[in-house]
Amino acid sequence: MNKIFLMIILCSFTLSLSACITTVDDVSVKTDEYSVRVQSNNNPDGYNFCPPGHAKKGWC
Questions:
Q1: By three-state DSSP, how is residue 53 classified?
Q2: Kind plus residue range of the DSSP H or E element containing 56
Q3: Sign (positive/negative) of CA torsion 23, 37, 34, 29?
Q4: Bridge partners, residue 36, by sequence
Q5: Tens digits of per-residue pLDDT, 3-54?
Q6: Does the CA dihedral 22-28-30-34 come out positive or negative?
Q7: Do the Cβ atoms of 19 and 8 come closer than 8 Å?
Q8: Which helix (H) or strand (E) holds 5?
Q9: How far apart are CA 50 and CA 44, in angstroms?
Q10: Backbone torsions φ then ψ of 37, nearest 5 degrees
């Protein structure tokens, strides 16, 4: 009975953490060969996604 209860608790804890999102602004990673920089979206309304169908039609 304790093993089943423990498994239920562990599964629910894992599923609850799977929906978490973390955002970081202006990240820079450097190694000997590569340098990668990720900047935040500077769009004032925060919306930058354009679906493929809209992009092909020139709506974005």
A1: helix
A2: helix 52-57
A3: negative
A4: 29
A5: 999 999 998 888 887 767 777 777 778 888 888 877 665 555 556 677 778 7
A6: positive
A7: no
A8: helix 2-17
A9: 16
A10: -130, 130
Length of the chain equals 60
Q: Which two tokens stand for residue 39?
A: 């900047």
Handedness of CA 24, 26, 30, 35 (dihedral sign): positive
Is the Cβ–Cβ distance between 40 and 48 less than 8 Å? no
Please state the pTM of the whole predicted model. 0.32
Tokens 């974005």 locate to 60
Q: Please calculate the CA angle 16-19-20 and round it to the nearest 5 degrees.
A: 100
31 token code pair: 């190694």
